[in-house]
Amino acid sequence: MIRIAVISGKGGTGKTMVACALADTNTRKQVLADCDVDAANLELLLSPTRLTTEPFAGLDVARIDPDRCSGCGICVNTCAFGAIKMDNERAEVSLFHCEGCGLCCFVCPEGAAVMEKRVCGEIYTSSTPYGPLVHARLFPGSGTSGLLVHEVKKRALTIDPSAEVLLVDGPPGIGCPLISTISGMDAVLIVTEPSVSALHDCKRLVTVCRRFDLSILLLINRFDLLDEITSEIEAYAEEEGIAIVGKIPFDSAVVRAVRQGIPITRADSPASKAISIVWEEIRSELDMP
Ligand code: SF4
Ligand code: SF4
Questions:
Q1: Confidence at 65, pLDDT banded by 50, 70, 90
Q2: Which end of the chain has fewer surrounding CB within 10 Å, N or C?
Q3: Higher-confidence residue: 142 or 18?
C-alpha cells in the first residue's frame, strides 16, 4: 500500500479540497483518513455513512478523592502546571491544565490522588463512495491530537488489507499532529498558494519533511493570483528538487463545490480540469504502476 498525505504549511490553502479531488480521481482501491483531527472536515465533502464510533482516551489525568484529601496543599505546590487548586480545604484538579505527569500521586501522603483515563474524543469509521474513511473528533480543550492522529492512522492501515493507496488529509502547520501524520508515509503533497506567508510556511514544512524518508511533491493552488510569488515558489521548488504536480487556477466553482459538499472534480470548470490530472502526475513522480 502506498501512503500519501496531503499537507500544508498553513490553513486555508485548499488542502482538503485537493485531498477530496484526489480521492475522486484515483482509480486504485483506496482507504481515506482525515488526520486533521483538530478541524476534521474531509467528511463534509465525501458524503460518508457512519459505521462505527468509539471513544478515544488520551493521556491519563489526575483525580483527587475529596474523602481522602487532608488539605495539606503539598500537591498544589508540587504541580508544575498549576493544575491543582484548593477549594474548601480540599485539592481539586483542573482537567484543562493537567498534563498527566503523575507527580501529585507520588507526593500525596494520603494516597488521595490517582491517575485516570479521560475520554477526550471519538474515532469513526465510515463508508464513502470513494472507499472507507477513518476520521475523528477531538473534544474542545483536549490537547492530545498527535496521539489521536496515530490512532486514526493505525485503523486506516488495517481497515482494508486489499487497498493499494492510503490517502490522508493531514493537518496544517508543523506541530505534533503533522509529525504524527507524516511518519511512515511514502510521500507528502504540500499544497501552497502564492502569498508571502504561505511560501514562508511551505519552506518550514519542507525543512520538517526532509527529516523523514519520504518523497515531497508540491501543488500551487490559486496560482494565478500573484504571478510574482508563484514564480518564487517555482524557483524554490527547482532549487530544492521538488516536483510541482499541479497548478490550480483561482476558480469560484471551487467555493460552489465546497458549498454543495462535492469534490471539485465533479464540476466542469478550469480548476476541475487542472486538478483532474494531478493524480496521474503523482503516480508518474512516484513511479506507481
Ligand atoms: S497532597 Fe494529597 S492530601 Fe495533600 S492536598 Fe494534595 S491531594 Fe490532598
Ligand atoms: S498529574 Fe501532574 S500535571 Fe496533573 S495535576 Fe498531577 S502533578 Fe499536576
A1: very high
A2: C
A3: 18
> Which residues, including other chains, have CB under 8 Å from residue 149's CB and lie 6 or more apart?
35, 37, 171, 177, 180, 181
Q: Where are the domains of the chain?
A: 2-57+121-285, 61-116
Residue 213 grid cell? 524518508
Cα(110) to ligand 2 centroid in Å equals 16
Closest atom of ligand 1 to CA, residue 78: 1
* Ligand in nearest proximity to the CA of 113: 1
Please tell us whether the domain made up of 61-116 is placed in CATH 3.30.70.20: yes
Ligand 1 atom 1: residue of nearest CA: 108
Count of H-run helices and E-run strands, the chain: 11, 13
What residues flank ligand 2, with Cβ below 6 Å? 62, 79, 81, 83-84, 93, 98-104
What does the block give as the cell for 61? 489525568
Per CATH, the homologous superfamily of domain 2-57+121-285 is P-loop containing nucleotide triphosphate hydrolases (3.40.50.300)
Mean of pLDDT values over 240-255: 94
Q: Is the pLDDT of residue 47 over 90?
A: no
Contact predicate 278/26, CB 8 Å: no
Nearest to 137 by CA among 15, 48, 50, 39: 39
